Amino acid sequence: MNDLLLNLILTLDASFRVCTPLIFASMAGLFAERSGVVDIGLEGKLLMSAFIAASAASFFGSPWIGLLFAIFASCIFAMIHGLASITFKGNQIVSGVAINILASGLTMILTLAWFKSGGITPTLKGDERFLSITLPGVDIIDHIPILGVIYRELISGHNILVYLAFATVPLVWWVVYRTRFGLRLRAVGENPKAVDTAGLSVEGLRYKALLIGGILCGIGGAYIAIAHNAQFTKEMTAGQGFIALAALIFGKWHPYRVLAACFLFGFLDALAVRLQGVVLPVIGEIPVQLIEATPYILTVILLAGFIGKAIPPKASAQPYIKEL
Amino acid sequence: MTRDRRLSWINGLLLPLFNVLTAFLATAIVFILIDVNPIEATKILIYGAFGYEEGIGYTLYYTTNFIFTGLAVAVAFHAGLFNIGGEGQAYIGGLGTALVALYIDPTLSAWLIIPLGISGGLLFGAMWAIIPAYLQAYRGSHIVITTIMFNFLASALMVYLLVHVLREVGQMSPQSKDFPDSAWIPFVHDVFAGMGYKIAESPLNLSFIVALIFSALVWFFLWHTRWGFAIRATGKSNDAAVYSGINPKKIIVVTMCISGALAGLVGINELMGVQHRLLLDFNYGYGFGGIAVALMGRNHPIGIIIAALLFGILYQGGMDLAFEMQNVSRHIIVVMQGLVILFCGGLEYLYRPVLIRFLAPIEASE
Question: Which of A94, A166, B92, B181 has its CA 20 to 30 A from that of B146?
């Protein structure tokens, strides 16, 4: 029994770590899509900022500088997307695809040019990355059965970005549902014409949304390279940007539901690692690939309206063309 | 004559040209940033692609894949659909081809096995596209998102199949056993040798001819058949298509089937043509490359062949470039693909305001 509990806690603990970048990226996507801009380029922004974070952290010897550079890089990509999809009214999906491919190519080219290696950056030493924090009171609570284990393994011992991710979600909710900016953001994604008629800048709001998304993706990417891992490796985001996109849809563009989806997908990922090669009673061995594919399958089924219905913001993917 | 009509040559000719040039210029800037002389690099690239027989063979071999996926993306574009799932359709199409090659009676004639292998690729590629198409048409889920998800599903499925089902007994790496000789699409150098000419060995095989045939078929289909007209009409204006009695739902399904089938042909070049077994990631990057090819080729088969050739040159020349210059790897091609997609796709209207401002008065005065 105790063994099972510990296993469960360890899997949940891993889920926290795995879902952190998903939370940052899906919140980024939430801002973009709520403003009426589809952001397929989450993956590219994560990858690019992971690479820049690892490079800068290794060069300057500080994870915080790495984080800053990562945010900067991700914001540049977000602004390219903005230029294409807001100012020049191009196809938002094509522009997102371009960003993903560009990030994939640039990270490979730059690792070679800067570090003379094909796709990896130098390994970060101790304090060049975000280390895990032991929360106060672990020693005291440790004596309490069950609760002690939960506190020590599950709640304490993550790095600061994990806590930041979970703090971001209520903040996003507050911004989107309780501020003037949030109201305008939601309006511009549903009916940009009304926003325009009210004398507000549709383009300005969308740029702001993308910039916030850029910052969040930057943190997510930095987490992957300099907190969860200790270097950048080739294609290390491995589709997490797309899983975040799936979580965004699965959570129906609502911060708390999206968080739940991120955690579910993170849990599935952690479970897949734990179940590798394990033969379960009755069912037998579950193929890891099936568990890994579950987020995608669930999203397809949801989108098809078989379990609830996911309706995106109305003006999603449509450039706003002002009538003269 | 309306103003828009008169300016059509700006939209149709000047803009695409400027866009491609900008993408090249941006690539040159990337070269300079990584301390490589772009002119020197271009020379090496072109020599690598055309300078010797083997290089030409490789160039055309890569071109073949890009023609297939470029056509796939273009057909979907004509119906106003964005098929981002070429990657997955190529993967599963390759599975179809491989299943034919692995399980058919190897004593049969190659004249029978190869067409069946091609059909396998077409069928499986179409199969992988029909589910997202159906969901878009009848359940309202967005095709871009579903096809992205299907890329990942294809990848998971293929890893599973190659590790657990199709892996050759006693073999460590996840790949199938070799195809029988009769399932090999002949190499071009073998064909030439049979006719008494000796040319350098390269992976170029007769799939290249298949790609050209399919380009012609796509051209004929889109511009000279009723279905092709219906597809283009739906893409131009969904409402107009409905008024003229076209069922857009059917169009979505048919178009995506054709698109997926075309992407599914990557497998014949890679598997029946070169590798002669099924292996992981043989499709890598061609599905996304097809987007760049279609955008650059303006969704016309002739444009696509030219754009595919350009990417073939870049792929092969890029290999030589990486070999010659320390600071460059072949991934510069990926950067360039990204830039082409960005400037010919996302930022396609970048120069429009400027061009119209400068050229409209000139034209009006004529």
Answer: A166
What proportion of chain A, given as a percentage, has pLDDT over 90? 48
Closest by Cα among A91, A103, A62, A88 to A218: A103
* CA–CA separation, B275 and B278 (whole Å): 7
| Cβ–Cβ below 8 Å for B334 and A289 | no
Contact B148 A245 (CB under 8 A): yes
Using CB atoms and an 8 Å cut-off, which of residues 23-62 of chain B contact chain A? 30, 33-35
What stretches of chain A adopt beta strand conformation (E)? Answer: 279-280, 284-285
The ipTM value here is: 0.88
Q: Is A303 on the interface with B (CB under 8 A)?
A: yes
Q: Tell me the chain A residues in contact with residue B146 when contact means C-beta distances shorter than 8 Å.
A: 300, 303
Cα distances (angstroms) measured from residue B326 to each of A107, B332, B337: 16, 13, 21
Beta-carbon contacts of A197 under 8 Å, excluding residues fewer than 6 positions away, are none
> Which residues in B256-278 are b (16+ Cβ under 10 Å) and which e?
bbbbbbbbbbbbbbbbbbbbbbb
| pLDDT top residue among A291 and B103 | B103
Q: What residue in B sits closest to A89 (Cα-Cα)?
A: B349
- ∠ CA B71-B74-B75 to the nearest 5 degrees? 85
How many other CB atoms are there within 10 angstroms of residue B13's CB atom? 11
Helix-, strand-, coil-residue percentages of chain A, each rounded to 5: 70, 0, 25
- Taking only the tens place, the pLDDT of each residue in B92-144 is 999 999 999 999 888 888 889 999 999 999 999 999 999 999 998 888 788 88
- What DSSP line would sit under A274-301, residue for residue? HTTT-EETTTEEPPHHHHHHHHHHHHHH
pTM equals 0.89
A221 vs B82: CA distance, rounded Å:
27
How far, rounded to the nearest angstrom, does the alpha carbon of residue A239 sit from its chain's CA centroid?
Answer: 11
Q: Is B79 on the interface with A (CB under 8 A)?
A: no
**A26, A79, A85, A94: best mutation site toward chain B, by most B Cβ within 10 Å?**
A94
- Structure tokens that stand for B197 in this block: 């000419």
Better pLDDT: B351 or A29: A29
Apex B173 CA angle, B181 and B110, nearest 5: 15
Contact A94 B331 (CB under 8 A): no
Cβ neighbours of A314 in B, within 8 Å: none
B335 and A CB contact within 8 Å: yes
CA–centroid distance for B35 within its chain: 31
Mean pLDDT computed over B73-89: 93
Strand-pairing partners, residue B279, are B175
A171-216 pLDDT per residue, tens: 999 999 999 999 999 999 999 999 999 999 999 999 999 999 999 9
